Amino acid sequence: TATARLTADMESTGAELTATEERVSLLVKEVSNARSVLAGTQASIAAARAVLPEGVDTTSQFDAVYQHALYVQEKKREVEANPNSDFYWWLIGGVLHADEVVYINDNRYSGQDCYLKALMINPLNCWAWWALGYHCRHSDSVVVGDISYTWLECMAKGLGLLSTIHPNVNAAGSWMHSGMCMMSEGATITVNGTIYTSRGCILKAFEMSPRDGTLWEHLGAKVAAEGPFVVDGTTYTTREECDAMALICEAS
Fold first, then answer.
1. CA dist., res. 229 & res. 204, Å (int)
2. Do 48 and 61 touch, CB atoms closer than 8 A?
3. Does 113 have pLDDT greater than 90?
4. Is 252 helix (H, G, I), strand (E, B) or coil?
């Protein structure tokens, strides 16, 4: 009947209006997020302008800030498409700067929050454990689940899980950065029952990748700060010697 057809048409129109409202709501959220990113980008540009000397060409610096903002948005969309993936939460945590935040589904996340979210999904994510420790290295502790960890304990847990779950992965960079972070602390970490000093972590890195030029560059900074360092029986006493080894490795 005409009444039935009219009722059906009204119901169809109502469904279309509801769907349209939902799409508009999503667009509003996207606009809000875009405005947040723009505000952060503008703040970063203002901060850069404030510290750069007069006459300096700032185009490259501003371009880097802009590209970073775009990259954050790309990683944000990946998390929103894969909200239960510890990998994508760990990934965006590594993209964010130390004091940077991102809004995901109307919730505010820092890099630390993203790592914690990854570990809530997968407590055995070795990369998230190590990155959380590195991110919190200027903090007293961080709570994961119901347990409080120091940043060194987080790093150690990450390195331990990495060697157990992914024994064939070259983790030289993680060991080197661990050693460099501990350099001024006089601290140690215990990984799978073995105690490592800053020096021990760095030597572990060279055991894994002795021809990595980046490792030699980092070692140069340590030698400059703390003095001679022995690698594979050879003593390196200056930063220049380490830089030379880095060049040799990169050329080979």
1. 13
2. yes
3. yes
4. coil
